[in-house]
Amino acid sequence: MNPYDLIPRFRAQYDTNNQEFSISGVVRPQSIDELAPSLTLLKESIARVRGILYVNIRRLTQMNNTAFHAFSRVIIDACRTRPDLKFVVITSSVVGWTTRKFGRLHGLEPNITVEEYDSQFYPGQSFLEEGGFIPILRTQTKMTWRHERKILPRHGMQPGIVMADICCGIGDFAVLVQKEFQPARIVALDHSRSSLDYARSVAADFDIRGIEYTYGDASEMLLEEDQFDLVTCRHSLQIFNRPELILKELFRICRPGGRVYITNEKNSHCLGEPRADSIQWTYNEVAKLFKHFEMDVELGPKSRRYLIEAGFEDIRVESFMVTNGDGDPQDFADVITAWENVYAGDMAVRRGDDPEMIERFRQGFQDHIFAALHPKGYAGWPIWVASGRKPS
Amino acid sequence: MIVASRDTDFGPMIQVDMEIKSFLSMWLYCDQISSYLARMVSHNRSDSVRHSNLFSSVANELLEVAFRTRHPDGELACRVSRQGRVDRIELTFPCTPEERQFYREALSQIVGSATGDRYMNSVSGDLSPSREVVLLELAVDYKAKLRLEETEADTIKLVVDLPLEDLPSEPV
Ligand SMILES: C[S@@+](CC[C@H](N)C(=O)[O-])C[C@H]1O[C@@H](n2cnc3c(N)ncnc32)[C@H](O)[C@@H]1O
């Protein structure tokens, strides 16, 4: 027998400050005895709390019925002896069975409720999901792909690799990679069901096979560790309030010797001629606006630091400028229009900006479009690409 | 429960065979075999990771049931096949005549609308779940359809049809 098999694959903890008991990993004991320390911890936690005990099972990937019964019994018994207590079980929508199974406990004891933690997810999710942003992501990817297809081989992309695209959005990047580089396997993960539905229907329509679209939370993925030759995460670290947590997960699923590839923006460096000043003013404001919602769209040049701090080596950073001269200038203009709608029409309003401010804010986007479509104009959108190798 | 489709409609995907003696030598086999099967059969499902997670839960419970057999002689066979959106697990393992009768009764009770209630009563009642409750849970939480298939004496074959692709991802 492999000695590692004896290492318990689950962890139970109690956090006094948050009155939170958490259990994570794979819990498949042969008998309840194996759970004794965790059950005791749960009982002690119950004895110590007042009001509410949070039971965090977000990272509980498997639990057999033996364990489920044992933990449930302790909680149910506590409901009967301590009617003053409430139990809130925190599940993750990503682990398919937990909410349903633990949700049943509410039927037995009304003081047990179950909350799915990631329903309201990262600060900007709603802006992007509700804003009709899908066609724009598509145009954006088309514009960045012209550059990235040449850049990617320098960062570990090659035929036959096993790769994952985390925060894949509507999946266009995965499709383009599939066509151009023929990896052996692509897992494409996102936390938006609507984007994934869209991605799956596109794949079906175009008879594209071999891309595994999967629903998940980038900060706590069900994917096993050390399995991908290349993990990409594009334009997404910048929308999380704690990008280092995502990076940690990207690192985990990457195989030793494999690479993690990230792209990010520095929005204040979007530029155009003519009307450079107005454009610059607006994009400086974009950066501040995102900051207000705890997102850092200035992250691009910080990639190197993030990768080093996450433990990567052989870090490679480069940047490229998407411009109105790359392809159809109207594509560029369409993207700016979408930005204007979401940033000025939605986010600035949500922040409570007054109409004059919003008008000036919109003007910079209009001027950027003007520059993009002007026969002698130039409009640019800079992107930072960075990758690092996971030490072997 | 009676399943309308015939076996021949299901395309075989993978099968694991093992001496029941060696299977019973290590509890962790339940987990390892279920994880392995789940990984092997899930990659072309609409959401491979989710499918694998759910499939592994079900297969593990079934293997744990087999692990409790009182007839430690013969072969364990776990076979997975697929028809469209339904996956089928066929688990054959040795058992005593009494156990066989027990499974027959247990499965005949997994019908009707009160299954969810009966399952929950067991959670608040028994200390650890019986084999019957474990099978009931598969019907309740995974919409599994379970039946027995006749085999030679001293073995039993559980046939479990799993509509995981159609299991709602959002709680209802
Ligand atoms: C700015 S988009 C980038 C999409 C895509 N990579 C692209 O370049 O078009 C950010 C994506 O991150 C996804 N996302 C947000 N939070 C997530 C999470 N916790 N886990 C996985 N994906 C998440 C969103 O649904 C969205 O599709």
From TrEMBL, chain A:
Residues 165-258 form the Methyltransferase domain. Signal peptide: none annotated. Gene3D superfamilies: Vaccinia Virus protein VP39. This is Methyltransferase domain-containing protein. Keywords: Methyltransferase, Transferase. Transmembrane segments: none annotated. The keyword Methyltransferase applies. It comes from the Bacteria.
